[in-house]
Design a protein that fits this description.
CATH class of the largest domain in chain B: Mainly Alpha
Number of domains of chain B: 3
Number of helices of chain B: 11
CATH architecture of the largest domain in chain A: Up-down Bundle
CATH architecture of the largest domain in chain B: Up-down Bundle
Strand content of chain B: 15-25%
CATH class of the largest domain in chain A: Mainly Alpha
Strand content of chain A: 15-25%
Structural class of chain A: alpha+beta
Helix content of chain A: 40-55%
Largest interface: A-B, 29 and 31 residues
Oligomer: heterodimer
Strand order of the largest sheet of chain A: 1-4-5-8
Number of domains of chain A: 3
Largest sheet of chain B: 4 strands, mixed
Radius of gyration of chain B: 21 Å
Distance between the termini of chain A: 59 Å
Mean pLDDT of chain B: 95
Strand order of the largest sheet of chain B: 1-4-5-8
CATH topology of the largest domain in chain B: Butyryl-CoA Dehydrogenase, subunit A, domain 3
Chain lengths: 391, 386
């Protein structure tokens, strides 16, 4: 029996089968995830999860997909997927993961040696926490029309503008951002990818309260904010390509059935507590939505399998996110509908002795069909790139 | 070492599947003829006898028949791929009906005559058809009232069977009937005294048989499985398997009709531009694509779930989930295909209607979406209490 707490970087995880690795991961997370942080119905603050983050880092379990030489586990794509699945299953809280999931892979693929040396170790140590500055008030679905501007002064960029929908910016020490560095060309061609220190004058972070009552998203105002030219990633005006290269793993992950499965469990719990299953009308709808969730899992499995066997796919993966997120919403809608009068009450409410928040899943998952390319954008992508329809 | 052996096997399986698909695509490309299909509507046996001979020569009729009985000895995955390709050209018949009968016979190996019947059907000489439904149909094979009374060493059957696919060209029938306690399966030749065959017409104007059994005598040698034997179980399994195969054909029907529609959206001009440039229509098309890909994914899961070694409850559940999705998605797709074509799609002259009608027939056959959802719920309950 191997010691599951031995440093990950010391082990060749890819020598295990996926099933063996799944067992290792499950047992590691089961032992290590702090009980008080399991299955939170909100995103925790950095101060609450820092210790957990450092535990992962100490054991070498922090970054599944980075190469071993950079302090990652060096997992194959399929094992990285297993990692995330087991992490979810364990109820582990979400940590500051933009550095791990997004910036790290970008620096590894497109950064300079100097950038990797300066930034990657500090992500691992938790000294740097990153947020993603993409969206702007007038650049949502049409991201390429972003206007936050970076002009070059000496060996620095001077940045002015506003980012919005930036998750947990208040806990970030740094931001990677898309900024406009050339206004005279086609909009995609004048964008650069830069790294910015948030702890400087001119950076103002304002949290935005969402409809579920949580403050996770932020506005970030950038007023004569400075960053050295060496913090440019990729080519000047080549930021759009850098950002696009980040897709792939994420596009599959955003179509995973995990959220609809969790919502379905909540619906089931409600139905059992209230005896709703005896109602044939409810039962029919419950069966239908259960099958929709299982079909989402089948579709996800199909793409995961392609990834596992080293295959690739293109824009057709957009169908996953559409179906997974819209199915999740329908589950939560059925819960509110089935709850009747309780569906009009906010917060934790008494359900025949059980305590449940009926509205939270419904409110929370409104975001799923908006972020990461809205359902409408995903349909545009399918229409243009897969179905070859004219524009 | 074992990895290498199994990957070589997987490679050769994949190669075989590709060859089968290609040969089916070739047959569809050369043979699909909507004019002839229209002319055959409302006629017996509902397919071209020359096409049946071709299917026998290609080995398709015996695709699921074990090699020991002269078949190709291939599996459901291969048959699904074949039906999916043929479905694109509305050229599947009479293969789905043959597949159902084949699977029943394969599941009843204790019947001495099974091998002979399998060999004959593989050659296309004598096709069997399965007569398991009655009255208003439904998907519970035990919910029947055709009576089997013991007589000497054999039995005597009386009752009325309905929804018998492939009846028109059949040499004989696998008939389910019951005594007071249980159901059995019996072989009845088409010429048996007391048997009469009539036809109803499916949505696509292909025939579907109604059998009247008026005290038909069944000799001991023609008892496939006496009441209380494993016959009913085998029949149930064959129905599940064929429901998944019908889903594969539905996927082909959906794929071809979506492609046809996309081509129309690209070329039909209104308001000075191709209508496929309108976002309302693009999003409708994208939703149909989502449904199509869901069917493909669930079909793959179902074929895996029906593989030997999987437990029966899981197999039945995933088969029901597959047929429910395919039936729902197929009908939704074809309804939208008509709408997206506008008035021309409403005409009998346009092929959209042919695809719609095949989808209607396939959706209803072996249980529509509602029937399979209800069964899925019952199976879930069963697995929760077991």
């Amino acid at each position: 029996m191997t010691d599951p707490t031995s440093p990950g970087s010391q082990r060749d995880w890819n020598a295990l089968s996926d099933d063996e690795f799944r067992q290792e991961a499950a047992s590691f997370f089961a032992q290590q995830v702090p009980a008080h942080l399991k299955f939170l119905s909100r995103r925790p603050r950095w101060a609450e999860v820092r210790d957990w983050y450092l535990t992962l880092s100490r054991h070498g379990w922090l970054v599944p997909a980075w190469p071993v030489e950079h302090g990652g586990m060096g997992l194959s794509q399929s094992k990285a997927l297993v990692y995330v699945e087991e992490l979810e299953r364990s109820g582990a809280p979400r940590v500051m993961d933009q550095g791990l999931m997004n910036l790290g892979p970008v620096l590894i693929a497109r950064g300079t040696e100097e950038q990797r040396r300066r930034f990657l170790p500090k992500i691992l140590s938790g000294e740097h926490t990153w947020c993603q500055g993409y969206s702007e008030p007038n650049a949502g679905s049409d991201l390429a029309s972003l206007r936050t501007e970076a002009r070059i002064e000496g060996d620095e960029f001077v940045i002015n503008g506003q980012k919005i929908w930036t998750s947990v910016a208040f806990d970030a020490t740094h931001m990677f951002a898309l900024v406009r560095t050339d206004k005279s060309v086609k909009k995609q061609a004048g964008i650069s990818f830069v790294m910015i220190d948030m702890k400087q004058p001119g950076v103002t972070v304002r949290p935005i309260r969402n409809i579920a009552g949580h403050e996770e998203l932020c506005e970030v105002f950038l007023d004569d904010v400075r960053t050295p030219l060496v913090n440019l990633v990729g080519e000047l005006n080549g930021g759009w390509q850098v950002a696009k290269a980040l897709l792939g793993f994420e596009r599959v992950w955003s179509g995973s059935p995990r959220q609809s499965t969790l919502a379905l469990l909540r619906l089931q719990r409600f139905a059992q507590a209230t005896g709703k299953m005896a109602d044939p009308v409810f039962r029919d709808r419950y069966t239908q939505i259960t099958m929709d969730v299982l079909d989402a899992a089948s579709a996800y499995e199909r793409f995961a399998q392609i990834m596992r066997t080293g295959g690739s796919f293109g824009f057709e993966v957009s169908m996953l996110k559409i179906w997974a997120t819209e199915t999740c919403q329908r589950v939560t809608e059925l819960l509110v509908e089935a709850a009747g009068d309780l569906g009009g009450l906010s917060g934790e409410v008494d359900v025949e002795g059980d305590s449940m928040d009926i509205l939270y899943p419904f409110l929370d998952c409104r975001a799923f069909t908006i972020y990461g390319g809205s359902s409408q954008v995903q349909r545009n992508i399918l229409a243009k790139n897969v179905l070859d329809l004219p524009s | 070492m074992s990895t290498q052996a199994s990957s070589t096997m997987a490679d050769s399986d994949a190669e075989q599947l590709t060859m089968l698909r290609e040969s089916a695509m070739d047959v569809v490309q050369r043979g699909a003829n909507m004019k002839h299909l229209r002319e055959r509507r409302g006629t017996l046996p509902g397919y071209d006898p020359a096409y049946l001979r071709q299917m026998a020569e290609l080995g398709w009729l015996g695709l699921l028949v074990p090699e020991a009985h002269g078949g190709l000895g291939l599996g459901l995955t291969e048959m699904a791929a074949l039906l999916q390709e043929l479905g694109k050209g509305l050229m599947a018949d009479p293969l789905p009906a043959v597949a159902l009968a084949t699977r029943v016979l394969v599941h009843c190996p204790q019947w001495a005559a099974a091998g002979g019947h399998l060999a004959a059907l593989a050659r296309g000489e004598a096709l069997p058809a399965v007569a398991w439904q009655e009255g208003l149909g439904g998907i519970d094979p035990a919910a029947i009232s055709t009576a089997a009374k013991p007589e000497g060493t054999g039995w005597r059957l009386s009752g009325r069977k309905r929804f018998v696919v492939g009846a028109a060209g059949a040499a004989g029938f696998i008939v389910s009937a019951r005594n007071a306690d249980a159901c059995g399966l019996f072989w009845i030749s088409k010429d048996a005294p007391g048997l009469s065959l009539e036809h109803e017409w499916r949505a696509d104007q292909t025939p579907i048989g109604v059998l009247a059994l008026d005290g038909v005598a069944v000799a001991a040698a023609d008892v496939i499985s006496a009441p209380g034997g494993h016959g009913l179980q085998g029949l149930q399994r064959a129905i599940d398997e064929t429901a998944v195969l019908a889903s594969a054909e539905m996927l082909g029907v959906m794929e071809a009709s979506l492609q046809m529609t996309l081509a129309y959206l690209r070329t039909r001009v209104q308001f000075g531009q191709p209508i496929g440039s309108f976002q309302a229509l693009q999003h409708k098309a994208a939703d149909l694509y989502v449904q199509q890909e869901l069917v493909r994914a669930v079909l793959q899961d179902a074929l895996r779930g029906l593989a030997p070694g999987q437990d029966a409850l899981t197999a039945a559940s995933v088969a029901s989930r597959c047929k429910a999705r395919a039936s729902d998605a197929g009908l939704r797709t074809l309804r939208e295909v008509i709408q997206l074509h506008g008035a021309i799609g409403y005409t009998d002259e346009h092929d959209a209607g042919l695809y719609l009608k095949r989808a209607l027939a396939l959706s209803a056959w072996l249980g529509n979406a509602s029937a399979h959802r209800a069964r899925f719920a019952a199976l879930q309950e069963q697995s929760a209490t077991s």
